[in-house]
Design goal:
alpha/beta; 25 helices; ten-stranded mixed sheet; binds iron/sulfur cluster; 783 residues; single chain; five-stranded mixed sheet
Length: 783
């Protein structure tokens, strides 16, 4: 997802790398195709080498290629490799042959390193039995589709001119079924500016791809891009339109080109070879065993991808010395003078290497798409500028109002949660870069995390959405972040937790703190060393940790293994959260409880279940927010004077901390603190307060005057507390009089503070809009 990558022209898979190692291999298992797309780089470009190749990769060639991949991974300690079965059309090899290829790859590579198997297909031959085979071997498939029927028919047709659209939709339908959903990698779409971008976007979005790749059609300065009616930058316009739709949709699809440009804008890596300065990390094996460079080079000149080497006689280490590959490891130095002085070079990176080609100057040119890339990137950057009150709001219209009014229905909260996850994701490339600058090598964990993101997005999201993963990332993201090198090691624990959840075979070293390894969202393992690194071997059904001769085997989620303490979960009536008493990054203003013993843990569980029951009965309007947004409750140590305390950490979206209390009191604290969560989340996307305004404001709930933002927080939180007492007063019962008095008090305090805020002149237009909704709710109650 953020990895440095390179990708075959017709594949939707990224890849991670270190500059002298290779982690992604494209195996051309069949060199012919059942379609005859007129924009195909394999058959329709200047390189015609396919004519001399065997149709199908032989067993000997598969064995030799697998052995070379394993040899390189073992020699360089490559944590995981990805092998993409490609063509032509790979499904033409047939089921029996495909099975034997997959068996060979698995038997040769999997004992040495993590193996991720992929396929890029046109989908026409994808049947249920074929999907079963792919699912059996964990192969994930990317399907090529250029949009709606009209867009797809423009190029992707059979040799007799017939449409392939219906057959491709059938394949996608099969991949969306629950049985095969895990095998659905995404869609690859080649852009044609004559197609309506809105229609294409909607058609692709409707197929619910886990990932979408938008490829510019291959072109060079010798064979320039199609520019209808001489338009100077039609691809910028086309991509710009899709980008706007994507923003308006809450960026729900992972569009690799956009995510990469956003990541590189923040100094992070790119997830595609089409943009960015990351070195190439891909080799192709042709059906005859020839080692080749990326397929996109076929667009440059006949024989451009050739290396003259083959899997029978040459190891990967020899191939990476080939000048064509070495040239693409030089980052900025490998670019022409025009690109090096370009203001957007760190994002664009000169575009796809193949697109720079011109007879005479070779690849020492800007991209043939230079005008489009520059215009689109500048448009995107302007759109993402943080100077405005509204940042690139991923929140659709109406969500801000809905949440500002004090609540948040299911749809609004879903958008907020998705936006927060996206925000967390955007922090990681910068953290990774800071670690590198601090001299901490986390590349192994980084690549593993990227692999899990590709293979099992749900497992990846589950770990990234953990509130204290975000808190850790936020602590390490500042340009001057200096939290100490070792704390960057938490990235390893995050990657390991994601891999364990995904059942993804890998080996990774994770840090120990105070004799424990903490795996976010999963639990804590006691190890035989106080600090330093512990090697962890992850397998499909659990993991094994090795530390100073001590070995702990932990089948995932098995509570009976000595030393393994799973995170305590509370699952009740739609609420699914953890009692977070171990995360090293759970930092709150009040003292924390240490890890709970079983008895105290049970008391917490009972209290949370009781509080949830109260909220459902007494204040159901807060149920969607807590159900969808709350992920963790952090136990605070009891106050010696018996005072109830609760808090929220700025960056730990989805978490609240509280002292143990009776369910009705805990219910109020949960509602109250989750209000702070929601407002903090809005503040990630909207500037609500003018920072130049420094005059503090006196409020009823604190002795000392508060900063403007603190007052806004207080108003928004007390709005909900007033509401809970209001609803209790309306229900009647023995505490009705007290409930009524509490409601009046909170209502009055909130109203007065709102008036002071409104009069302060310190709110931005977005902040004033939020306050207006709060006041509307207050007025509604009074009426
Ligand atoms: S399906 Fe892919 S390989 Fe086959 S002709 Fe079309 S673009 Fe080329
Ligand atoms: S926008 Fe043009 S000049 Fe700038 S880096 Fe990209 S290709 Fe080079």
């Amino acid at each position: 997802m953020w990895r440095r990558s390179t990708r075959p022209s017709d594949a939707s898979m990224g890849v991670g790398m270190a500059s002298d190692t290779i982690s992604q291999y494209v195996l051309k298992v069949h060199s012919r195709c059942d379609l005859a797309c007129d924009h195909c780089y394999v058959y329709e470009n200047v390189d015609q080498s396919w004519r001399q190749r065997p149709h199908v990769m032989s067993d000997d060639t598969v064995r030799a290629a697998a052995a070379r991949i394993a040899q390189h991974a073992a020699a360089h300690g490559v944590g995981a490799v990805r092998v993409v079965l490609h063509g032509g059309e790979p499904l033409l090899v047939g089921r029996g042959r495909l099975r034997s290829m997959l068996e060979t790859l698995r038997a040769t590579i999997a004992p040495v390193t993590g193996l991720s198997l992929r396929m890029q297909s046109n989908g026409v031959l994808l049947t249920e039995p074929m999907c079963e085979l792919l699912a059996e071997f964990g192969v994930r498939v990317g399907i090529s589709l250029d949009g709606d029927r009209a867009a797809n028919d423009r190029h992707r047709r059979y040799a007799n001119g017939a449409s392939s659209h219906r057959a491709v939709l059938r394949a996608l339908e099969l991949l969306r079924t629950p049985a095969f959903r895990a095998a659905y990698a995404g869609i690859l779409c080649t852009v044609d500016v004559r197609n309506d971008p809105d229609v294409v976007y909607e058609a692709l979005r409707d197929q619910q791809p886990p990932r979408l790749d938008l490829l510019l059609p291959h072109a060079t300065w010798d064979d320039p891009p199609l520019r209808p009616e001489g338009a100077p930058a039609p691809y910028a316009q086309w991509l710009g339109r899709v980008f706007e739709r994507w923003l308006a949709d809450g960026q729900r699809i992972d569009i690799r080109l956009f995510e990469s440009l956003i990541s590189t804008r923040a100094g992070g890596p790119s997830a595609t070879e089409s943009v960015g300065l990351d070195p190439a990390d891909l080799l192709v094996v042709e059906t005859d065993g020839a080692w080749e460079q990326a397929d996109s080079l076929k667009a440059a000149f006949d024989g451009a991808p050739a290396t003259g080497l083959n899997v029978f006689d040459h190891a990967v280490d020899e191939v990476v010395l080939h000048p064509g590959i070495a040239d693409r490891q030089r980052g900025m130095e490998g670019l022409c003078a025009t690109c090096r002085s370009c203001p957007v070079v760190r994002q664009c990176g000169g575009g796809l290497y193949a697109h720079r080609y011109r007879t005479g100057t070779g690849f020492d040119n800007p991209s043939a798409y230079c005008a489009d890339l520059k215009e689109f990137i500048e448009h995107m950057n302007a759109r993402l500028s943080t100077q405005d009150d509204a940042r690139p709001a991923p929140l659709p219209e109406g969500v801000l109002d809905e949440i500002s009014a004090g609540y948040g229905d299911e749809e609004a909260i879903r958008h907020l949660v998705a936006a927060e996850l996206m925000f967390t994701k955007s922090l990681f490339p910068r953290v990774y870069e800071n670690a590198r600058r601090a001299g901490v090598d986390t590349s192994e964990a980084w690549d593993l995390l990227n692999d899990v993101a590709d293979r099992d997005p749900a497992a990846f999201r589950a770990v990234l959405a953990h509130p204290y993963v975000r808190a850790w990332a936020a602590e390490h993201v500042a340009d001057d972040a200096s939290p100490g090198g070792s704390s960057y090691g938490y990235l390893r624990a995050i990657a390991a937790a994601a891999a364990i959840r995904a059942g993804y075979a890998a080996t990774v070293a994770v840090p120990a703190w105070d004799g424990r390894v903490y795996l976010p969202t999963l639990g804590t393992l006691a190890v035989s060393r106080a600090a330093g690194m512990v090697k962890m071997s992850i397998a499909e059904k659990g993991f094994v940790a090795y530390a100073d001769g001590g070995v702990s085997a932990v089948p995932a989620f098995d509570t009976t293994v000595p030393g393994w303490r799973p995170t305590r979960r509370v699952e009740t009536a739609g609420l699914s959260i953890v009692i977070e008493d171990a995360d090293p990054y759970r930092k709150h203003k009040w003292p924390l409880e240490p890890p709970l013993d079983d008895q105290t843990g049970e008391a917490w569980r009972d209290a949370i279940i009781g509080a949830w029951d109260c909220i459902q009965r007494e204040a159901p309007a807060y149920v969607p927010g807590l159900r969808l947004g709350l992920r963790a409750v952090v136990p605070l140590r009891a106050d010696p004077a018996g005072k109830l305390q609760s808090s929220t950490a700025l960056h730990a979206f989805g978490s609240i901390a509280a002292t143990l209390a009776q369910p009705r009191a805990l219910a109020v604290m949960m509602v109250h603190e989750f209000q702070h969560n929601k407002l903090n989340a809005l503040l990630d996307w909207y500037r609500l307060v003018d920072n130049r305004y420094v005059e503090p404001i006196k409020v009823a709930w604190r002795d000392d005057p508060r900063p403007v933002l603190g007052v806004l927080h207080g108003v928004y939180a007390h709005l909900a507390v007033a509401d809970v007492w209001r609803l209790r007063a309306r229900r009647g019962g023995p505490d009705q009089a007290e409930a009524h008095a509490q409601f009046e008090k909170y209502l009055q305090d909130t109203r007065v503070a709102s008036e002071k805020l409104a009069a302060s002149g310190a709110l931005t237009s977005a902040g004033a809009a939020v306050l207006a909704q709060i006041v509307k709710t207050l007025d509604h109650w009074r009426d």
